[in-house]
## 1
Amino acid sequence: MKCALITGGSRGIGRAICIKLAAQGYYVLINYKSNIEEAKKTLSTIKEAGGNGELLQFDVADKDQIKQKLGDWLQENEEEKHIEILINNAGIREDSLMAWMAEEQWDSVMKTNLDSFFHVTRLVLNGMLTRKYGRIINVVSLSGLKGLAGQTNYSAAKAGVIGATKALAQEVGRQGITVNALAPGFIRTDMTDGLDEKELRALIPLKRFGLPEEIAHAAAFLASPDAAYITGQVLSINGGLYS
Ligand code: NAP
């Protein structure tokens, strides 16, 4: 059975990607941190549409939990379920000007957005290498390309994942595995809930925030066999805000 693991699949962009990949026939592993109600909603939406999957709770900022929970799942299911697609999507922001940034704000953003890439991907990669096929898609950000004031932690973490995307793409290309990144601009989710869309949309050539489904379409394409010759790329999806 072909599976797709989406970290942070309970809400926002991750949920839209789960629904899209399930509609394409993948058995979807919906990771989340603590919001089980929202994770269950993602799963029931998938099942109502005729798809299938399961919840897989672990905190991507905690390497021991990743090793234990994801490691156990991989071992228990190694005979019949293979993760073909990994979407490293879970992320947080803890904005503050550098002068006032607490160590905790730096550390939590690094662990959740950057270290998670290493710990999750390393576990999943082995199976992809064995089967000589895989699609790894990292959800980064405009902030990691451009740098945004008030986000030195978040910009650094996302820029780190962009570097890792390009390096890993070169390591695993010959094994049929592609590694790409999606860099959203402003997308309507809980993460951008506090932002003033009316004011910010003046800066965006397409004059609106994007929708999670608009990221999911691109993720589904990069995850498909049709995208076999695309690797090491960062695709901006930002309404023309920056390129
Ligand atoms: P969101 O609506 O805030 O949802 C965040 C998701 O990540 C939730 O499913 C949450 O799980 C999960 N998550 C957070 N910390 C986690 C952890 N430690 N372990 C496991 N799961 C965790 O965010 P979003 O807007 O969809 O963002 C998704 C990704 O896109 C992030 O990487 C973000 O940086 C990136 N991005 C977003 C935007 C935007 O405008 N929205 C722009 C650029 C980049 P729970 O439900 O359990 O909390």
## 2
Amino acid sequence: MTTYTTAWKSPSNIALVKYWGKRPDGIQIPSNASISFTLNNCATNTTLTFTEQDNLEIEVSLEGKDEPEFIPKIEQFLKRVSHIFPFVIKGRYSIDTSNSFPHSSGIASSASGMSALALCICDIAKEKGLLSEEVFLQTASELARLGSGSASRSVYGPMGVWGEHSDFEGSSDNYAVEYSEIHKVFTDYCDTILLVHKGQKTVSSTVGHDLINGHPFAEARFVQAKENMTELRKILQSGNLDAFIALVESEALTLHSLMMSSNPYFILMKSETLKVIEAIWAKRKKDGVKWCFTLDAGANVHFLYPQADKEAAIQFIERELKQYCENGAFIHDEVGMGAERI
Ligand code: DP6
């Protein structure tokens, strides 16, 4: 009955070309490749104590408080990864997790949470002699993907690419790869998350992904995403911020228009989401700033700007954007270097 204890801190990430849709013929296989900035401040810390035993037993706490409602998702995850590491379903798990961002901020914790857990499991596999250092992160990314697709990209910084794409060497549908061939302006790019709506989303990402199968615009979307990956790669290398803005905002609005044209249709934006977008557009028009937004599957707005503009952007947030945030809340973040053992 050996006991193992390990702990990892893993960040959240924000996709620029979005993953939206899974292939029906696989488990957690994306319909198109995606790419994200890894974040630095929004992260999950997970401590795992694993004791070998014949059956599976899970106990999980968030910020020290028991969270039995997390157990079914973790159990599903462990069963999904058991073909890679059969030991995972024979043990007692004591998982203690905490997020750096406030609970119920509307920020999805699945990317940081699932990647942190995947990394902990890989540590145990390594200790058992089942995993070498060379493929450690790749395997952790593969495990994370089986928990939540976007989690696969969180283990690396400054960017992660998930999904096979001919322009990204080594890219795969099974795991994400690191992407770092980027212009210096992007290495410390800022992302202030404007917390427009802190409540639970009405439709989960998993349900949203499912609605892409049979969606009337699906095929065109997959072609567009593929082209946008090619285009964004060039933009990330050249540092062309006008092109960056045009592509990133189009991706965000396309994601939400896919939701609005699903059957059944749904809207995750709130009226404040649009107000923030309009304020950013008006500012850009008036002052020529290179600031833009992206959205994930929710109402919050990720406000993106270069590090050099941080002071001016913060003033703009305080004066013009904060009013649209629930209780005036926002979180400053920036591009980070991926997960770390703690
Ligand atoms: C809109 O990774 O949360 O954030 O694989 O079902 O867990 P599951 O979905 P999830 O979907 C994220 C979708 C997105 C875009 C993205 O991160 O690429």
